[in-house]
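Methods — Computational structure assignment.
A single polypeptide chain was analysed. Its primary sequence is given first, followed by the predicted tertiary structure written as structure tokens.
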Amino acid sequence: MEKRYQVFVSSTHEDLQEERQEVMHALLELDCIPAGMELFPAANEDQWTLIKNVINDCDYYILIVGGRYGSVDSDGVSYTEKEYHYALEKRKPVIGFLHKNPDELPAKKTEKSEENKKKLELFRSIVEKKMCQLWEGPADLGSKVSRSLIKLIKQHPAIGWVKADQLPSEDMNEDLLRLRKRVEELEAQLSEVQTEAPQGTENLAQGDDDFRVLFSFDSPTGELDFDHETHKETHTLTWNEIFYAVLPRMMNEAAEHEIQSDLSELIESRTKEVVQGRFGPFGLSNFWVDRNTFRTILVQLKALGLITKSIRQRSVNDKSTYWKLTPYGETMITRLRAIRKK
């Protein structure tokens, strides 16, 4: 679908007419839509509201600064500077183009009052802190605008505009929605019959194969609760023991930190008495499975076809990763934990 981008061109008007023509030609050659409000008299609040609405509708913002500060609002700030700050506030991709040698411009293209000269100098220093380029003449400006905008579009792709006849019709959207739902139904049906191990998993560690689990725990070093030392140890578990400990949690989906907590509790129950004798009479605490070890376990469970990431939508504030059992994982946990007849 072909897109066109709308570009707001902000500058003073009287002194930069030739330069603006070059910029407009450059934008049109890129199939962009130029927009700008500098031709309108800067008169009242309604005018400023119109300018903001046009900036809101634009995809990119270009600022051209020559030797003039421009007409000012009642607060003493030029409309050109107000437009620039508003574009930044709205997080529009912005490029500033500053004249390289403003002191060498003809007098008719420069500010006459000392006050406006100081305001222009301060404005230039603000623009220089963001993305900007220096230009020397109309042709140079047009060329730099063209190259810079191409690069900006690649770095910050915008929504853009398309012709109405290129938009998907309502019937097409409904067809796509029906097809998407059908794909989801077929995927669900496929997963329901996958109650056996995926092909190739026979070469992966599983069952009674051993796996060394790295974990940490704290031992007290004094009478105060916060006086403690952290230790690292390893303990060997079989994959079936790991499955037995963590898979039930995922029958109704579970967050990663919950699964890691279950595994840490297993490690604590298996190792606490063994390591207790080496650290005096005080109790040990904060048993926790190493993060990299835990990630390896998740990868192995996924590779064995036992678990998969949950894709169910949750609150935007919930940043946790959730896992659930596959149909094959449910079959495995039944084999491991179901009570057999004696």
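Note: The mean pLDDT is 85.
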